[in-house]
Amino acid sequence: MMKEADKRYATALGRPAPYLQVTDTSGRLSALYENGCYTLIDFWASWCLPCRKENTALKKLFQKYRTVGFSITSVSLDENKLLWLNAVKQDKLSWKQLNDLKGWNGTATTSYGVKAIPMNYLVNKDGVIIAKNLHAEQIDKLLANILKQ
Q1: Confidence at 1, pLDDT banded by 50, 70, 90
Q2: CATH number at residue 77
């Protein structure tokens, strides 16, 4: 119970986002977010139909805001690399894709306390969690306000 409480506290609004590195599609370690940019950390999987549907909406957000300080990092819960990479290709996802192939036991998944997907965290330019578990429309409104679009 204490571990669960610690995870919730570590990922609460206003707290610094856990800084982690996870393997990308090329096999290199890459950070979940970089300071100086608003980053949506999105947890998903190829077998999650709501996740795949949300990818379509996220693509529009990425195109709309990427030139004004917004990025997305997707963290897949897939344990099969081929299924994960095929889904990235099918969905035409052009932002950072990470996966340690450990599913629900992955480093980022456990550190962020992910219990269901899709799940996301919006991290500000200073690495602080400012929102979580938002749908694309909610993210759009928030970013429009923050980035004055």
Answers
A1: low
A2: 3.40.30.10
Note the pLDDT of residue 11.
85
- Considering its fold, how many domains does the chain have in total? 1
DSSP letters, 106-131, are -HHHHHTT--SSSEEEEE-TTSBEEE
Mean pLDDT of 69-80: 97
Return the closest-CA partner of residue 113 out of 26, 8, 32, 25. 8
Question: From the CB of residue 4, how many other CB atoms can be counted at a distance below 10 Å?
Answer: 10
Report the share of the chain in percent with pLDDT over 70: 95
